[in-house]
Amino acid sequence: MQEKGTISIHTENIFPIIKKFLYSDHEIFLRELVSNAVDATQKIKRLSSIGQYKGELGELQVEVSFDKENKTITVSDRGLGMTAEEIKKYINQIAFSGATEFVEKFKDAKDANELIGKFGLGFYSAFMVADRVEIQTLSHQEGAAPARWICDGSTEFEITEGNRTTRGTDIILHINADSEEFLDQHKLEEILKKHCAFLPVPVVFGKRNTSVEDGQDENGETKYKTVEIDNIINNTNPIWTKSPSELSDQDYLDFYHQLYPMSDDPLFWIHLNVDYPFNLTGVLYFPKVKKEVELRPNKIKLFSRQVFITDEVKDIVPEFLMLLHGVIDSPDIPLNVSRSFLQADSHVKKINSHITKKVADKLGDLFKKDRKGYEEKWSDIGLFVKYGMLTDEKFYDRAKDFVLLNNTKDEVFTLSEYEEKVAPLQTEKEGNKVYLYTTDPGKQDSFIQSANARGYDVLLMNSPLDNHFISQLEQKLEKTQVKRVDSGTIDSLIKKDEPLPSVLSEEQSATVKTVFEKAVKKPGMNVHVESLSPSELPVTVTMDEFMRRMKDMAAMGGGGGMNFYGSLPDNYNVTVNSNHPLIGKIASASSEEEKEGMAKQAFDLALLSQGLLTGAELTEFVKRSVAML
After folding, report:
1. pTM of the entire structure?
2. Quick one: which of 365, 324, 330, 367 has its CA closest to 350?
3. How far apart are CA 285 and CA 362, in angstroms?
4. Is the dihedral of CA 331, 332, 338, 340 positive or negative?
5. At a CB cut-off of 8 Å and minimum separation 6, what does 438 contact?
6. Taking a C-beta distance cutoff of 8 angstroms, is the pair 325, 300 a contact?
7. Which fold has domain 2-205?
8. pLDDT-based confidence at 469, cuts 50/70/90?
9. Structural class in CATH, domain 499-551+568-629
């Protein structure tokens, strides 16, 4: 038997396209060939189970080997095998009827992966690393003859009688000079463990040594000996293929540490198992995270029928859940032939929505069933929840019942609980509820104490997302304002009735304002005199809540209009409390020098409380304070 011919692809440009566009990473060739071998193995097993194949199955496994001297890599299976006619049907006649138009349209494109998935070219990925590919195969069909196919990367092929004596297929790659890096044991094993670690058929790559019991010595102690066994690189039955009822907590933890060996135990996990209207399995873990946002995208792995596809899952997993770890497996996610680029369609959108709902349901159940445990985990999961509420409207609607607020007294509230707590005291004269918060209890302590003295509560909002979360609360909560506790005097933040009468006359107030304007020589400081409680500080320096919030967002990289606010010079309000005894003392001082000296000291104290007194000015303040003692 001998036959020569031309591969039916209607164009001579197919191989340059494969090499240029088909795969972003050349190592994918091994995944494609091993996956094909696994498919062939599963098919013979299926035929046997329904009685359409009567022969002995033997040991069903896929073997990968290499010969450095002869520069070959071989992928072998004991699957269906092929006849010469089937080779011509499945290998030679590539389903590429539109190839000519494709080549013309995309010959200069960089994104040909968008379309190339329509043409079934997985086997031809071999030509990315090989200048000659050989197939040795023997079909499972009774009386079939072995066949050999060889192609040198052009459209010319040759079929002759093969030399395989057992059912199955060998794919032999004669590696080209540019790809000899793959003729390395560690390199190949690394690729196999990355892409084939959970394939449903054992994949053997060479041998490894292991210890086995070998009787007992003269003292009755167990002896061991070293034996050589097949090096099986994959777990054929990972936990996401099992029912949750079959698994213990330890099973989930063991699998997590198999995926992420250096990580702490996860907080909890979600087992996905959907078969309608799409097929989806997997396990998602909530890891312990730091306060800072660390959107590291390579933590969730996407599989299709246990074949690793990609760890770029941003289209499938909602953005706010990119912090999760774990695996997702779905044959319904459309992929191009390289299996490396997701194509958005209705299935992807439905899966995205389903994952969002499952996560929300899990968090809601944890909150209802074990609130204390949920609160203990909040420092880790709060980042997920707030990010989800900010980026996903549907998640906000679900999460508003289990998002938590912490105050400076280490108390924890839901949104509805907090509204009930503060509404009686913290409702201003216009009817708006005012939520006060601090970003730094240490630096803003005097303002917190001032609020607490009035019976007001202060929230702790010090995560990177809280600036945006605060704005969202104002948009979502009816008649609610959120103000940083140091963004004004306490009376200006929660305006009640008419202000207290001033103990100073209008003339004295004008004098005090002039004195402080002379003492305050820093740009962007706007002095005004207010009649506050005598227990409040004599001078308070604050930045307007709106401006400060815009600047904080700009500092976080808000972009757009935020950059405009970030570029504006800082402006502060200097509030002089006309009812404080020190201000009365300044107003009645006999000399201008004495007035300005006391005003300067009071102003510097206000700057110091806000961390705004630094450098030479701080040194001068300390010297002046010592001189006054």
Report:
1. 0.72
2. 330
3. 11
4. negative
5. 408, 444, 447, 448, 458, 459, 460, 461, 462, 484, 485, 486
6. yes
7. Heat Shock Protein 90 (3.30.565)
8. very high
9. mainly alpha
